[in-house]
Design brief:
By secondary structure, the chain is α/β, with parallel strands linked by helices. The protein has helices at about 15, 25-30, 65-75, 115-125, 140-155, 165-175; strands spanning about 35-40, 55-60, 80-85, 100-105, 125-135, 175-185, 195-200.
Length: about 200
């Protein structure tokens, strides 16, 4: 999410990415990764310390060279990590080449998120899985109205973040079947903190 994505200042999201409240989400989502893993939008590598077996390799995709340099310099992962300087809308990997795709607070800020999700499906093996934790469209109408009102300005100040993307329906529309999903607010302003956490597989 723009609010939580690890983008270099002056974007407001930089500090939020270090929020200790996000650690349990990272532990659950990253801890479920297996085999050859593609992480979408690795940023400066905040997720890298959480990878462990049965994951065996991390392909860390990130379009910003400066963030790749930061992540590479951190040496934070015990797994082999290969950095891919590329967009999620054009993933430079072969079809059916990864076991797990991971996306954490990223779908909100990808300009063509539907295209990116289709790419994630393309590179996933038939039995592969998509692990995600994202913020997005809230269930209450009053909160949704605020999300719609705030998103134009919020996108401008937070690196393209959309507060109102319907994460579940976006994932399903891209050809994934949801295996597990948990939703709810984490502490903070409601328009920015409705979370979707779960896993999905190719249909």
């Amino acid at each position: 999410m723009g609010f939580y994505s690890d983008i270099i200042l002056p974007r407001l999201c930089h500090l939020a990415m270090r929020n200790k409240q996000l650690v349990p989400y990272r532990e659950r989502v990253i801890g479920a990764a297996e085999g050859r893993v593609l992480e979408i939008g690795v940023g400066s590598g905040m997720n890298l310390p959480f990878y462990r077996a049965p994951a065996r390799e991390v392909l860390a995709l990130e379009p910003a060279p400066r963030l790749i340099a930061m992540a590479n310099a951190s040496g934070a992962s015990s797994m082999p990590v290969t950095f891919l300087e590329a967009s999620a809308e054009a993933i430079p990997l072969d079809q059916h080449s990864v076991d797990t795709v991971v996306t954490t607070w990223t779908l909100c800020s990808i300009p063509q998120a539907g295209t990116a999700l289709a790419e994630m499906r393309r590179v996933s093996r038939p039995a592969g899985k998509l692990l995600f934790v994202e913020h997005g469209l809230a269930p209450e109408e009053a909160v949704r109205r605020w999300q719609d009102r705030l998103t134009p300005a919020w996108r401008y100040i937070s690196g393209g973040c959309h507060l109102n993307r319907p994460i579940r329906s976006m994932i399903e529309a891209a050809g994934f079947r949801i295996d597990r999903i948990e939703t709810g607010y984490m502490p903070g302003p409601k328009p920015m903190t409705f979370m979707y956490e779960g896993s999905a597989r190719r249909k």
